Amino acid sequence: MLTAYIFCLVVGGGLLALSFFGDFLEGDVDADGALEIEGDVDVDADGADITRLFSLRALVYALFGFGAAGAALHAIWAGGRPGLTAVVAGGMGLASGALISTVFGYLKRSESGTIEGADSLIGLRGQVRMAITEGGIGEVRIESGSRRFRMRARADDLEGVGMTLETGRPVVVVDVKKGVALVAPMEMKLLED
């Protein structure tokens, strides 16, 4: 059973470390869901949805809680109480997953840490992360202070120009509609102004 505890501890702890240090490694994971939910997903906040309990975040914390508690109790009791260790570790895993789901559910409902709204992105500079063709949708990374947001994006003034906004090109957000940023190349926007 010690092997299962160590496996859960390593996998859960590794995924947690990756999520914590993702910002230092140029990760854009934090804001992805906050902006895409606005235009793409209908959220029912009234009913108790069982899928919230089984989110990926809750699973990672449950794995880590199970592995950490199991390995610690195995070391404390020198492997002498395997049944009790498994029960306590399982309870700790479920408790940590439920606690994290509850905390993040509260943060989502209270809108803590979210940007003011889509209108606050207008005028901000960004960079194309996935090429945007005429009439197509790509992806941009927008920086607001120390936070980075990834959003789906469409080019604003490319009709008839036959131009593609390639990866890495600087853009400016002109508008946001239904969770999709309308962007213009930085040079074209500066020439217009």
* Strand segment count: 5
Order of helices and strands: HHHHHEEEEEH
Query: So what's the overall shape?
Result: elongated
Spatial ordering of strands, largest sheet:
1-2-3-5-4
Distance between the termini: 67 Å
Query: Helicity level, as a percent range?
Result: 40-55%
Number of helices: 6
Largest sheet: 5 strands, mixed, barrel
Structural class assignment:
alpha+beta
Cα-atom radius of gyration? 22 Å
* Average predicted confidence as pLDDT: 75
Low-confidence stretches: 27-48
Kindly estimate the percentage of residues that lie in beta strands according to DSSP: 15-25%
Task: Map the helices and strands.
Blueprint: H1 2-21, H2 32-40, H3 50-53, H4 56-76, H5 82-110, E1 125-130, E2 137-144, E3 147-155, E4 170-177, E5 180-185, H6 186-192
Parallel strand pairs: 3-5
Antiparallel strand pairs: 1-2, 1-4, 2-3, 4-5
Supply the key terms.
single chain, 193 residues, alpha+beta, 6 helices, 19% strand
Structure description:
The chain is of the alpha+beta class. A five-stranded mixed β-barrel has the order 1-2-3-5-4. The model is unreliable at 27-48 (pLDDT under 50). It has helices at 2-21, 32-40, 50-53, 56-76, 82-110, 186-192, and strands at 125-130, 137-144, 147-155, 170-177, 180-185. The termini are far apart. A hairpin with a 2-residue loop joins strand 2 (137-144) and strand 3 (147-155). The protein has six helices and five strands; from the N terminus they run H-H-H-H-H-E-E-E-E-E-H.
